[in-house]
């Protein structure tokens, strides 16, 4: 299972890099969302898939069956943060499109002399 | 008071939340922000004295014992930075009263500043590596807001790049935390310091250490990863720029110093050698940038990069002089960068441009500004009685005592280039043929000048009173070099 997940994480990272290298701002944002999800899955995978029982101390649950709760707690935090950042980025992209008249990042290059 | 380390984090947070309720009443916003920052500075100073007299203070949140719960740890290193950050923010807010426009003040500028301080203080204080990620996200969220606030074309353009770089580095941060957790099974820094030396697979720990260096290098702008900084820091208005320059990159630098002294010490030959080489390259790259531009903001922005290199070189030596120098220089740099940005901001306001070639002759009309700028420039370059000198001296000494004596030579040589880059501003803006300046009301000018002069005075005090200040710095260096002090304070029964 860990191997399958690792391959999936690698695929997500690859897709994210491909999307982020494109010119359209919207594709870049989707790329960042995919990238953060890849990172979250990696975090879950690295915690190990040892346990089958829920991460609650209950009668009859041995240490071997007990799922590690920490990666899940960490992912929850990381997902909330990445949602917030992605939504902010989407709003910013819309505003930038209104102001700059383009969503092509190649046309957004500029020095301080150019406005 | 056992919960003292929480106060510099909670006070700005609570005041920021209060401020959200009445955004249009600027007078009240200003007063409440000032009150909040004064309380924060007071709490930070109280904490500084407390840590100095009673040793490292640790708070376990929810009373979960250390390796399981999140710990907030205040040692002398972190509390020095918390105090400096709070003081710098106080001055930046005083400076913003005149220089930030009312439209920005009405759109939650002050809450964003306070949230930024919450994140910065939290990142300095936390003793858990995932919690560090969370606090860094808090301060990044506030910085995203500050960088776009105003919605000018250049701001929108640059903030997209800034956010993109930070999202990628955050994703890498999560990945690095994942690897660290899978190898060690813990995320508490003190527990990591115990467990990392026991791990036999030194190779994989080295990979993780370098991955963390990449992540913090993005935040702290070290050599190949500083590319986003000059553009992004050019866009926002001066007080925001001063806050970013003084606080944001320093969080990355702090994280590198903390992780590379506390637990990534298993393969010093490779990791710290790499850090030393990268920091020298950072200094060189920063110097090239600082000399290349004719824009006052750009010159100071590149000086941020130089300072990052100098500090990290001191930390990479892992000897007493080098680490103490890094701590001292870090505090000095936060103060002096804010001072320089304030002064340069006044210059830019007076001429209506930040292009050096369109300036001249300010010494005749504003002599006080000129003298204060000259003092700040000398302090930045490390001319003896001022605040840059003791830190740089210790860092250079650390380099000569350590394995990288060539690095010290680079730092000494580039000090001259730093001096040249800032004196160039002095030559163009203050000497030469007078150019017509924009008429600024004396009261407005005074309110801009007083916080700037205050920061310069602070830099002078830090340099002249270095002897008073050294016990704190050497205490911080001691904690950094003997992780057992930190571990004992956190993992105590």
Describe the fold and architecture:
Chain A has 115 residues and is mainly α. Chain A has a single domain (1-107), classed as Helix Hairpins. Helices cover 63% and strands 0% of the residues of chain A. Chain A contains three helices and no strands. In chain A, α1 packs antiparallel against α2 and α2 (25-46) runs antiparallel to α3. Chain A is elongated. Chain B is mainly alpha-helical and 493 residues long. Chain B has one domain (4-491). Chain B is 77% helix and 2% strand. A two-stranded antiparallel ribbon of chain B has the order 1-2. Chain B is globular and about 70 Å long. At the A-B interface, α2 and α3 of A face α6 and α7 of B. Chain A: InterPro entries: CPA3_antiporter_subunitC, NUOK/Mnh_C1-like. Chain A: It holds the Pfam family Oxidored_q2. Chain A: This is Na(+)/H(+) antiporter subunit C. Chain A: The chain crosses the membrane at residues 6-21, 28-50, 70-94. Chain A: It comes from Planococcus lenghuensis.
Question: What class do helices, strands and sheet pairing of chain B give?
Answer: mainly alpha
Low-confidence stretches of chain B: none
Q: What is the makeup of the main sheet of chain B?
A: 2 strands, antiparallel
Q: Give the count of structural domains of chain A.
A: 1
Helix/strand-derived category of chain A reads mainly alpha
Q: What proportion of the residues of chain B is helical, as a percent range?
A: over 70%
Number of beta-strand segments of chain B? 2
Per CATH, which architecture of chain A?
Orthogonal Bundle
Number of separate strands of chain A = 0
Q: Please write the CATH class name of chain A.
A: Mainly Alpha
- Helical content band of chain A: 55-70%
Largest interface: A-B, 37 and 32 residues
- Total helices of chain A: the number is 3
Describe the global form of chain B.
globular
Q: What gap, in angstroms, lies between the N and C termini of chain B?
A: 19 Å
| Mean pLDDT across all amino acids of chain B | 91
Sequence of strands across the biggest β-sheet of chain B: 1-2
Helix and strand run of chain A: HHH
Number of helices of chain B: 21
Unreliable spans of chain A: none
């Amino acid at each position: 299972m860990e191997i399958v997940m690792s391959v999936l994480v690698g695929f997500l990272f690859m897709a994210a890099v491909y999307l982020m290298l494109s010119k359209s701002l919207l594709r870049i944002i989707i790329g960042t969302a995919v990238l953060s999800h890849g990172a979250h899955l990696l975090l879950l995978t690295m915690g190990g898939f040892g346990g089958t029982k829920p991460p609650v101390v209950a009668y009859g649950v041995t240490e071997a069956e007990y799922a590690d709760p920490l990666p899940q707690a960490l992912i929850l935090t990381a997902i909330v943060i990445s949602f917030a950042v992605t939504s902010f980025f989407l709003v910013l992209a819309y505003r930038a499109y209104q102001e700059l008249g383009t969503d092509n990042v190649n046309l957004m290059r500029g020095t301080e002399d150019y406005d | 008071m056992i919960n003292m380390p929480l106060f510099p984090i909670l006070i700005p947070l609570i005041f920021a939340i209060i401020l959200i309720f009445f955004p249009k009443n600027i007078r009240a916003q200003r007063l409440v922000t000032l009150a909040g920052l004064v309380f924060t500075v007071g709490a930070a100073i109280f904490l500084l004295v407390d840590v100095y007299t009673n040793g490292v203070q640790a708070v376990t949140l929810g009373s979960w014992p250390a390796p399981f719960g999140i710990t907030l740890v205040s040692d002398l290193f972190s509390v020095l930075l918390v105090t400096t950050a709070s003081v710098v923010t106080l001055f930046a807010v005083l400076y913003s009263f005149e220089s930030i426009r009312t439209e920005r003040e009405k759109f939650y500028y002050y809450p964003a500043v306070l949230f930024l301080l919450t994140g910065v203080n939290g990142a300095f204080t936390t003793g858990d590596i995932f919690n560090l990620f969370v606090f860094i996200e808090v301060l990044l969220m506030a910085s995203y807001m500050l960088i776009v606030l105003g919605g000018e074309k250049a701001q929108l353009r640059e903030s997209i790049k800034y956010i993109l770089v930070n999202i990628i580095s955050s994703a890498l941060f999560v990945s690095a935390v994942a690897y660290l957790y899978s190898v060690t099974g813990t995320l508490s820094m003190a527990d990591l310091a115990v467990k990392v030396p026991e791990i036999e697979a030194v190779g994989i720990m080295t990979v993780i250490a370098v991955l963390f260096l990449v992540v913090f290098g993005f935040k702290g702008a070290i050599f190949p990863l500083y590319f986003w900084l000059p553009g992004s820091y050019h866009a926002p208005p001066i007080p925001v720029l001063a806050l970013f320059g003084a606080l944001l990159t320093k969080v990355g630098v702090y994280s590198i110093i903390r992780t590379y002294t506390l637990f990534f010490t298993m393969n010093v030959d490779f990791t710290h050698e790499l850090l030393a080489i990268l920091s020298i390259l950072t200094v060189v790259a920063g110097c090239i940038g600082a000399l290349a531009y004719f824009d006052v903001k750009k010159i100071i922005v590149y000086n941020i990069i130089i300072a990052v290199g100098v500090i990290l070189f001191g930390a990479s030596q892992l000897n007493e002089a080098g680490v103490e120098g890094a701590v001292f220089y870090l505090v000095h740099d936060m103060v002096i960068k804010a001072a320089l940005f304030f002064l340069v901001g006044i210059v830019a306001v007076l001429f209506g441009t930040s292009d050096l070639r369109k300036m001249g002759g300010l010494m005749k009309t504003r002599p006080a500004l000129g003298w204060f700028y000259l003092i700040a420039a000398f302090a930045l370059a490390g001319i003896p009685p001022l605040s840059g000198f003791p830190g740089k001296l210790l860092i250079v000494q650390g380099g000569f005592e350590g394995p990288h004596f060539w690095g010290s030579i680079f730092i000494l040589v580039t000090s001259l280039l730093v001096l040249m880059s800032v004196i160039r501003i002095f030559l163009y803006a203050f000497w030469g043929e007078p150019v017509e300046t924009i008429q600024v009301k004396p009261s407005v000018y005074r309110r801009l000048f007083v916080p700037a002069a205050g920061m310069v005075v602070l830099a002078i005090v830090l340099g002249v009173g270095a002897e008073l200040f050294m016990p704190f710095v050497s205490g911080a260096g001691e904690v950094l070099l003997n992780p057992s002090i930190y571990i004992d304070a956190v993992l105590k029964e």
